[in-house]
Specification:
single chain, 107 residues, alpha+beta, Ubiquitin-like (UB roll), five-stranded mixed sheet, 5 strands, globular
């Protein structure tokens, strides 16, 4: 099963093993990772699961959907070129080692 490393706002890291098909958001919420709110529960409707995808992973992900791109205009922290909504990032074996950082605020 793929591993995902989460970097919390304070800099602490947590590496979790997630089942393929699980969203990066769900893994963080279930494990109590700091820095995520996920108010809408993963429906791409709130932008409170905003994360920064760390190099070199951004190019290995599918591009954001139109809905995700729209929601990224509503993030509370700085939007960057590597900003994504973690509810839209689905873990698969090819993403083993994926690393994401949560910003200092979600709302």
């Amino acid at each position: 099963m793929p591993q995902v490393t989460y970097i919390e706002p304070g800099g602490a890291t947590r590496t979790l093993t997630l089942a393929a098909g699980t969203s990066v958001m769900r893994g963080a919420v279930d494990a109590g990772v700091d820095g995520i709110e996920a108010q809408c529960g993963g429906n791409c409707a709130c932008a409170t699961c905003h994360c920064y995808v760390q190099d070199p992973w951004l190019d290995k992900l599918p591009p954001p959907s139109d809905d995700e791109t729209l929601m990224l205009t509503n993030v509370a922290a700085e939007r960057r070129p590597n900003s994504r909504l973690s509810c839209q990032l689905i873990v698969e074996p090819g993403l083993d080692g994926l690393s994401v950082r949560f910003p200092d605020r979600q709302s």
